[in-house]
Every structure is written in structure tokens, then in C-alpha cells.
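Protocol step 4 of 5: obtain the predicted structure for the target chain.
Materials: sequence only (see below). No template structures provided, no constraints applied. The aim of this step is simply to have a reference model before the mutagenesis design in step 5. Sequence pasted as it appears in the construct record:
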Amino acid sequence: MDRRKATFIGIGAQKCASTWLHGVLEQCGDVRVADGKEVDFFSYYFDRGYEWYERVFDAQPEVRHRGEVSPSYFIHPDAPRRAAAYASDLHVFVCLRDPVSRAFSNHLHEVRKGHVTGNNQVFETALENNPLYIEQGRYAHHLARWRDAFPADRIHVFFQEEIYADRAAAARRVTDALDLPALEDFLDRQVNESVRYRNAALGETLWKLGNIARQAGLGRAVETAKSVPGLRHLRAANREGLRDVVPPMRPDTEKRIADLLASEVDKLEHLLGHPVPWPRFRGPHAALKDYRTDKI
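Step 4 output (C-alpha cells):
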């Protein structure tokens, strides 16, 4: 059998720029990224076998790299062992962000998907109903399993805050990790905005059309089309900013989550061997990060 094995995976965490990572990899000429951002093989569909997994790449043999991005892998207890058994030399891309910001963005995502409605749109109410808001922010705990399964030099950790500060430089880190040429015409696009569609069918149709075009190498044409007056007005009229709908997190809740995860952040810094770019964890008087930033 012609094994077209994956050479990289993106593992999350959820709401930490994994869609940006997928977009960068899509633009690399010698890379085939699986259709659809989340394959979830090493988490939810491992029983389907390697042949099923490798069919999703659908690439010619001469393509140098194949892979996919599934945020479910980061916290799944069996995913690191399964991935290492499949290919011990995989490049593993990890994207992290301030865990308090991540928790609120997770909530916005659930609202946008329609999983959280009514009074549960209040973050504090939803927080009591969904323990994964906090569990997914236990970065050191989850990353340690991946460090046990893969050599440290195969795990590439990115911070959303640094990506947002210089997306092109972060994209170069991705291509450098895979020993690929830098993207000369890097397409910087904003994805996964905190919006929902008033007409869900129209929003889904526009999203699917854009995704098909990007997979055909027409990503820049998609971004240009968004600025055409008629389409721009149609999109704007159909979009509703979630920040205008969902009440903000209360300051006492923000502090409570930060206190709860402070030891995890400390362990993460020791695991990585360097500080993280999250000011709220730099001491009791550190400036609070804006947890409502959700541009990636």
C-alpha cells in the first residue's frame, strides 16, 4: 500500500489560533492539509484506522508534507500516545493563549454554535455548566503528555498574542519548522471572528463557498471578494457581533480563573524554559489582559 503518512499535526488548544495555523499551512506549496480543519482521528475516530486517516490528505506522492489541525488532540488523554505510535517523528504544532482569554473565547464559540442559549449566555452561568472552559486551560498538564510522547524539538509552541503582534514572523516559524521556504506573498487574513449569522443558512453557504475556493488556491480572491460592495454589505447585514450580545466576564470571575490557573502557568513556564506573554500572571499588580480580544 502507498502510505502517504502525515508529517505534522496541529493539536490546539481550542480557540488559540489553530485556524490561523491551518491557513498558513494551506498556503505552503509543498504541503497538503486535510480538507476541513478538524479530522479528530487521534481523539474521536481512531477506530477507523490509518488507511482512513491517510485518505483525507488526498495528495500526490511528491508532496513533501501532509497533515491536519485538530484542537481536540491537545486535551485528549490518548492522543499523544496514538500519534507517536503512528509516526514518532511528527512535527507537533501547539497554539496557546492567555487561559482566561481562552475561556471567554470558548464561551463565545459555544454561543455562536448555538450550544449555549438564553440565560446561559451569561459567562458565569455557562462556566458552572461547562467544566472544559477551565480544563482546557490546564496547559502544563496537557502539554506534559505530549512532551512525554515526542522529543522537545518536534513540538513547536506558539502564543496567540505573539502571532497577533507579527503574523508574518509567526508564519516564518511554521515554514522554518518544516524546512520550507518562507511564504513570499503571505496572505494575512482574520478568521474565526466573534460573530454569528442572523441567517444561518446564508452564513453557512458563504463559508462553504469561501472554503472551497481557498482549497483551490484562490484564497486571495476570496479576501478580495469580501471587499466588493454588494457582498460586503450582504455579509455585514447578516453578521451580529457576539460581544454586543454576550455580557462581559465579571472582574471577580476573571480574577478567580486567573488565581485558579496560576500554578498551571508557572508549571508551563518551567516546562518550556521561558516566560509566557501573559501580563496578568506576572504578579499581583500586573495589568489585566483584555480577555475579549478574539481576532484569530
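Step 4 remarks: The longest strand covers residues 91-96. The mean pLDDT is 84.
Proceed to step 5.
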